[in-house]
Amino acid sequence: MASRAAAAARVQIPVNGIVSKEVQQQHFVAQQIGAPVGFFERGPAKSERRVSNREALARHLSSSSANPLADVRNRVFIRCPHRGRQLARAEASGNGAAQTTRRPEYIPNRIDDPNYVRIFDTTLRDGEQSPGATMTSKEKLDVARQLARLGVDIIEAGFPRASPDDLEAVRSIAKEVGNAVDETGYVPVICGLARCNKQDIDAAWEGVRHAKRPRIHVFIATSEIHLEYKLKKTRDEVVQIAREMVGYCKSLGCNDIEFSPEDAGRSDPDYVCRVLGEVIKAGATTLNIPDTVGYTIPKEFGELIAYLRKNTEGAENVIFSTHCQNDLGLATGNTLAGAVAGARQLEVTINGIGERAGNTSLEEVVMAIRCRGNNLFDGLYTGVNIKQIAVASRMVTDYTGIMVQPHKAIVGANAFAHESGIHQDGMLKNKGTYEIMSPEDIGLVRADAAGLVMGKHSGRAALKARLQKLGYELEPKDLEDVFERFKGLADKKKTITDGDLEALISDEVFQPTHVYSLVDLQVVTGTMGLPTATLKMSGPGGQMHIGSAVGSGPVDASYKAVDSIVKIPVELVEYSVNAVSEGIDSVATTRVVIRSENEAGSSQIHSQTGAEVHRSFSGNGASEDIVVSSVRAYISALNKLIGFGYESAPREKQAAQKVVAS
Question: Residues in domain Pyruvate carboxyltransferase (predicted)?
Answer without folding.
Answer: 117-390
